[in-house]
Automatic annotation (TrEMBL), chain A:
<protein>
    <submittedName>
        <fullName>DUF1648 domain-containing protein</fullName>
    </submittedName>
</protein>
<feature type="transmembrane region" description="Helical">
    <location>
        <begin position="131"/>
        <end position="152"/>
    </location>
</feature>
<feature type="transmembrane region" description="Helical">
    <location>
        <begin position="20"/>
        <end position="42"/>
    </location>
</feature>
<feature type="transmembrane region" description="Helical">
    <location>
        <begin position="62"/>
        <end position="83"/>
    </location>
</feature>
<feature type="region of interest" description="Disordered">
    <location>
        <begin position="156"/>
        <end position="176"/>
    </location>
</feature>
<keyword id="KW-0472">Membrane</keyword>
<feature type="transmembrane region" description="Helical">
    <location>
        <begin position="208"/>
        <end position="231"/>
    </location>
</feature>
<keyword id="KW-0812">Transmembrane</keyword>
<dbReference type="Pfam" id="PF07853">
    <property type="entry name" value="DUF1648"/>
</dbReference>
TrEMBL record, chain B:
<dbReference type="Pfam" id="PF00392">
    <property type="entry name" value="GntR"/>
</dbReference>
<dbReference type="InterPro" id="IPR036390">
    <property type="entry name" value="WH_DNA-bd_sf"/>
</dbReference>
<protein>
    <submittedName>
        <fullName>GntR family transcriptional regulator</fullName>
    </submittedName>
</protein>
<dbReference type="GO" id="GO:0003700">
    <property type="term" value="F:DNA-binding transcription factor activity"/>
</dbReference>
<dbReference type="InterPro" id="IPR036388">
    <property type="entry name" value="WH-like_DNA-bd_sf"/>
</dbReference>
<keyword id="KW-0238">DNA-binding</keyword>
<keyword id="KW-0805">Transcription regulation</keyword>
<feature type="domain" description="HTH gntR-type">
    <location>
        <begin position="11"/>
        <end position="79"/>
    </location>
</feature>
<keyword id="KW-0804">Transcription</keyword>
Length: 325, 119
């Protein structure tokens, strides 16, 4: 039933390493330049921390301040480079450079502004750093984030897929079909039972509020531990196996198309359960075969489930029907 | 598991649902111990009456392929094997063929009984 339905999908490449590291290198170079330019005019102790009214209330030596400013940039640069390698081509890889550029630009601006405010001042206690510098730092962060997004590349995997190439199911006109399969996570079931037990114990011994919160968490986890995925004329629905009322529905008119592929939770989602990420969301209870729905909103919805190939073929068949009406 | 019905077909909808489940057991895509969708949920999904689905499930229960428990839904029995499901499909073919030839239900049962008498 599920052979010969698979459609391969071109992989996208993660942003190049130099794109990720570049803002931190630039920020370090700029700070070094500013320091070299004003080094001769700095007081013995720099004003480096400012109170609510912009008045200086913390002091550091110029050399120490330079090291304290540049060391975090180097650490961030290494962390972002490692993260970029590990998260592969997932949508999160497209947003890491944005965060990296924003962090580098805003911290470089604030450090640079602090150095310039201190330049040529005989007494550091007179130095002020007005609040509007924080607003400017935010603007810098936004602009740099935009540059990071552009340099990271479009990364729009949907745009690279040939339209109409997704698998279809041979469903004679007029006949109806319903596909469903359960997917469960023993790990989440165990967590749910543990939390439920803790909720009962604490509810009786400690406070009923804590107990109620834990019990509610246990119910939510338990509901997600075993889920029936259904695809039919209405679209896709997720419902707890034991309680057939869907907690998530994606109607047909919100779906552009569907494909099935192998999903690796560790690198793509970083955890089990119902995940929401920039650009996509979904229920991933295990790695392996999964259905990927492209939505009209431009987002992706992912659910890992056995026999996903048949599920997406049926979805595409119903999508064709809806469009030919 | 894919359950397919064609309202235009002369085969009753409940029997079509039973045939889909039987087919899924026969080709190994559904295994013993798996749960079928709740009758109410499947009825809404296919756009048919819930009693139609229950008729199909009842038929599968009589064939020994599923267990029906109140409040727990339908579950594929431990004894349901692809072979058992294929046997059900063969019986279905026998009945369809006999009816096409104009045999009455009595005559079909007699036919099978006579086949059982000969050693």
């Amino acid at each position: 039933m599920n052979s010969s339905l698979r459609a391969d999908q071109p992989a996208t490449s993660p942003p190049r390493a130099w794109v990720v590291v570049l803002p931190f290198v630039l920020a370090t170079v700029v700070l070094g330049g500013v320091y070299a330019a004003v080094a001769g005019r700095l007081p013995e102790h720099l004003a480096t921390h400012f109170g609510p009214n912009g008045q200086a209330d913390g002091y550091t030596s110029p050399g120490g301040y330079l090291i304290l400013s540049i060391a975090p940039l180097a650490v961030f640069g290494i962390v972002f480079a490692v993260l970029g390698r590990r998260s592969g081509a997932g949508p999160s890889a497209r947003w890491q450079p944005v965060v990296g550029y924003a962090v580098a630009a805003s911290s470089a601006y604030l450090t640079g502004a602090t150095l310039l405010c201190n330049a040529g001042v005989p007494d550091a206690s007179a130095v002020r750093l007005p609040y509007w510098h924080i607003a400017v730092a935010l603007v810098f962060a936004l602009l740099a984030g935009g540059v990071g997004r552009l340099l990271a590349g479009p990364g729009d995997r949907a745009a690279r897929r040939a339209p109409g190439s997704e698998p279809r199911l041979d469903l004679p006109g007029g006949s109806r079909a319903s596909w469903s399969h359960t997917v469960s996570s023993p790990l989440m079931a165990a967590v749910s039972i543990l939390v439920c037990g803790a909720g009962l114990v604490l509810g009786f011994t400690d406070s009923w509020v804590v107990g109620a919160v834990l019990l509610a968490a246990a119910v939510v986890t338990g509901a997600c531990a075993s889920v029936r995925v259904t695809v039919d004329r209405r679209g896709l629905a997720l419902a707890p196996t034991l309680l057939p009322y869907p907690f998530r529905r994606i109607p047909l008119h919100r779906i552009v198309d569907a494909t099935s592929r192998e999903i690796v939770i560790a690198t793509e989602f970083g955890g089990w359960g119902y995940r929401v990420q920039p650009g996509r969301s979904g229920l991933v209870l295990r790695s392996g075969e999964g259905a990927v729905l492209r939505l009209t909103s431009g987002r992706e919805f992912v659910v890992t489930v056995d026999d996903a190939a048949t599920a997406v073929a049926l979805l595409n068949t119903y999508l064709d029907r809806a469009r030919s009406k | 598991m894919l359950i397919q019905v064609d309202p235009a077909s002369s085969v009753p909808l409940g029997d079509q649902i039973a045939a889909s489940v039987r087919g899924a057991i026969a080709d190994g895509s559904v295994r013993a111990g798996e749960r079928l969708p709740a009758a109410r949920a499947l009825a809404a999904s296919l756009g048919v009456n819930v009693h139609t689905v229950l008729r199909g499930y009842q038929r599968l229960k009589e064939e020994g392929l599923i267990e029906l428990r109140r409040g727990r839904g339908a579950m594929i029995t431990g004894t349901a094997s692809p072979g058992r499901a294929r046997l059900g499909e063969a019986a279905e073919r026998l009945i369809t063929e006999a009816r096409r030839l104009g045999l009455s239900d009595e005559e079909i049962v007699t036919l099978v009984r006579e086949g059982l008498v000969t050693p």
